[in-house]
Design goal:
alpha+beta
């Protein structure tokens, strides 16, 4: 706080030199300092003080963004972690007002006594509500927009205009719509009001299919199922894919004649294909293992994700090895096929695996009534590309769908304003081993290089379909030309001028920018983002 010409206000919770790392272990930053205000007035005073001095102050949450979107190395960071209260539940209107630091999981628990829940979720529930909505997070369901569309009001602590209360009911809601997916560049979100839905159970069905079968049924599945998710398994015969559907219990598409069919056999039987492959791979490397038939007895209780991580770590960049792992994973999912009934928040959350590189893009694929087929054409060509280039692409390549968002900065904003447009989201992945010693660091570096080549190989395909990166997964190029190319592309897709004008008004000194934001959407009152930040 010395650089501010005096002590910070009481309740600011300053922690100098805090070392921050994102969840996927791919980005780090040193916060100078990390501030955790205990009250909203303390947050407002912090923002006002940094604005007066013109010093950087980036909002950071639980750091779940794979690209480190909320990090600002060497600058002050402000966390809403202590501003996590559920302020008001309006049961009659089905709305909840919550502070930005509350987690999705905490909010869901608080809503249960009121018989309410969120309409859609991302894969995990550790996100804080401020960041969850600001970056355009989404679940899946062709009739359900990304989560920013659930926001009906918010409070934004801005450097230039103080705290603003914005709402969908404003006479001119343009700023509200811009701010609810504002990338942390228009202000620090202190409070959001979300539209909820009645709590409900879902019937989830999981089965393994292939490209040919999916093509015959895809348009119907999108229309019939409330939630639909594909997990493609590269390098598998027939382009195998795990299909996961979820529907209101007893509703349309709700299962096999109302009977719930649990997966067959025991968990150990379902993971057997991976255990046997692991035993064989270890034996081929001269590593002894116990158990009959090459199936290590000590691994019998190991979970699927643990076994997959061990297998991938043996040869993460060997395409032949990865193909064998993906085939074993396909068999695991065949044995795991079945149905379950559970509360919606349990069904919609799923295990994302360990540390990883991930890139997810969204693109339009027609409407439910007139699908363009771009989603499956894209997947067919992506799988072709993986095979042709010999890319060691692990499973899954995840494909999901959402309706359009009316937030202009959302990757699912409707092209031409047609809100009937459905958007397909496709995420590719490479897993990283834990950073333990020189050998693992070298392996992580090699995987990082391979993943960048993977992304580059599919860049042309993304451009053809007009795909845009999920904001939390867009990695800024390290070179000047690459950053310029990204800026130009994003300026054609999004209202960069309107966003820039709003930044100039609400944050005239650009204290909220960081290297990522200043590179892709340069502040209009600052120099270009060629330096990757200001």
């Amino acid at each position: 706080g010395a650089g501010l010409g005096g002590a910070l206000p009481p309740g600011s919770g300053a922690e100098p030199g805090a070392e921050l790392e994102n969840w996927s272990g791919t980005h780090r930053a040193r916060a100078e300092p990390l501030l955790q205000p205990e009250t909203v007035p303390a947050l407002e005073q912090v923002v006002a003080r940094y604005h007066r001095r013109g010093e950087k102050l980036r909002a950071v949450g639980n750091r779940l963004s794979p690209n480190g979107l909320g990090l600002s190395d060497g600058h002050a960071q402000v966390s809403p972690a202590l501003l996590d209260g559920v302020l008001y539940v309006d049961r009659e209107r089905g709305r909840v007002t919550v502070q930005a630091g509350a987690t999705v999981g905490g909010l869901l628990a608080a809503l249960r006594p009121y018989g309410l829940t969120l309409a859609n979720l991302a894969s995990i529930a550790d996100q804080q509500l401020g960041g969850f909505t600001q970056v355009g997070a989404h679940g899946t369901g062709a009739g359900l927009p990304p989560v920013d569309e659930q926001v009906v009001a918010l409070k934004l602590v801005t450097p230039g205009r103080g705290t603003l209360a914005l709402s969908a009911d404003d006479p001119d809601p343009a700023l509200f719509r811009l701010a609810r997916c504002g990338l942390g560049g228009l202000g620090v979100v202190s409070e959001v009001t979300l539209q909820c839905v009645p709590a409900h159970q879902l019937t989830e069905r999981t089965f393994v299919s292939d490209m040919r079968t999916v093509r015959r049924n895809h348009a119907r599945w999108l229309r019939e199922h409330r939630h639909l998710r594909y997990m493609w398994l590269p390098h598998t015969e027939g382009r195998q894919v795990v299909v996961v559907t979820a529907d209101d219990l007893g509703g349309k598409g709700g299962g096999w004649g109302g009977r719930v069919r649990a997966p067959r056999g025991t968990p150990a039987w379902r993971t057997e294909p991976l255990r046997r492959l692991l035993a064989a791979e270890l034996a081929s490397r001269g590593v002894p293992s116990a158990g009959d038939g090459g199936d290590p007895a000590e691994l019998e209780g190991a979970a699927f994700s643990e076994l997959r991580d061990q297998l991938l770590a043996l040869a993460p960049l060997d395409a032949g090895h990865i193909a064998r792992v993906n085939a074993a994973e396909a068999e695991f999912w065949r044995r795991s096929s079945g149905e379950r009934v559970a509360p919606s928040e349990q069904v919609l959350g799923f295990d994302c695996g360990g540390q990883q590189w991930v890139l997810e893009t969204a693109f339009p694929t027609g409407t439910l009534d007139t699908p363009s087929g771009a989603d499956l054409d894209y997947m067919e060509r992506l799988l072709d590309l993986i095979e042709e280039h010999g890319i060691a692409a692990p499973a899954p390549i995840e494909q999901r769908w959402t309706a359009s968002s009316t937030s202009p900065m959302s990757p699912a904003s409707a092209p031409g304003g047609d809100l009937a447009t459905v958007h397909s989201w496709v995420g590719i992945i490479m897993y990283l081993p834990p950073e333990e010693g020189e050998a693992s660091r070298a392996q992580r570096a090699a995987i990082t290089g391979a993943f960048r080549e993977y992304c580059e190989a599919k860049r042309g395909l993304d451009l053809e379909v007009g795909a845009t990166e999920h904001w939390a997964k867009l990695e800024v190029p390290g070179d000047v030309a690459g950053r310029a190319s990204v800026r130009e592309r994003l300026a054609r897709r999004f209202p960069a001028e309107a966003y820039g004008r709003a930044r100039a008004e609400l944050d005239p000194k650009n204290i909220l920018g960081n290297a990522w934001l200043d590179a892709v959407f340069p502040h209009p009152r600052c120099r270009s983002g060629d330096g990757g930040g200001s």
